[in-house]
């Protein structure tokens, strides 16, 4: 015959299972994740590099507002670079990550200054691209288009080639 202790433990275990979606299991699930993958490229207007253009990467992962805004300037050849953004995050049980990235430029001649926008739904580096982007070029005169990916899509007027992450 089971003891009172065993019955008590069973009741606690069942209670935990019923309420597990409300529990923060962060100590078990805290991990280093990629909020936004690194991007290096060139900004063009009518095929010509745009020097000294302010480019901003805005990231959101823990609130409804932008959690981080990074601002850089293109070099004399129109080149810009954002490094991969890593963060240690404590996930709740069965949580779907959603990391929002938006890149815009400070250019008064543009009706729409956003050149790249996506919601990253996976924690691996370069998951939002389905590979490593190469030859990244953004043409300011092009319309924003939808680029389908494994985990969603990207709204952008940028173009790139992909290298598999395994290569």
Q: Which characteristics define this entry?
A:
167 residues; five-stranded mixed sheet; six-stranded antiparallel sheet; single chain; 13 strands; Immunoglobulin-like; mainly beta; 2 helices
Overview of the molecule:
The structure is a single chain. 11% of the residues lie in helices and 46% in strands. With 167 residues, it is mostly beta strands. It has one domain (24-163): Immunoglobulin-like (Sandwich), CATH 2.60.40. A 6-stranded antiparallel sheet has the order 5-4-8-9-12-11, with no helix packed on it. Strands 2, 3, 6, 10 and 13 form a 5-stranded mixed sheet that branches. β4 and β5 (68-73) form a beta hairpin. The model is unreliable at 17-27 (pLDDT under 50).
CATH architecture: Sandwich
Low-confidence stretches: 17-27
Order of helix and strand elements from N to C terminus: HHEEEEEEEEEEEEE
Terminal Cα separation, in Å?
60 Å
| Rg value | 22 Å
- Globally, the shape reads elongated
* DSSP summary: helix tally: 2
Indicate the proportion of strand residues: over 45%
Q: Strand order, biggest sheet? A: 5-4-8-9-12-11
Quaternary arrangement of the chains shown? single chain
Annotated CATH topology? Immunoglobulin-like
Structural class: mainly beta
Tell me the major beta sheet. Answer: 6 strands, antiparallel
DSSP strand count: 13
Average of per-residue pLDDT values: 84
Number of domains: 1
The level of helicity is: 10-25%
CATH class: Mainly Beta
Organism: Saccharophagus degradans (strain 2-40 / ATCC 43961 / DSM 17024)
Pfam families: DUF6795
Domain DUF6795: 39-143
Protein name: DUF6795 domain-containing protein
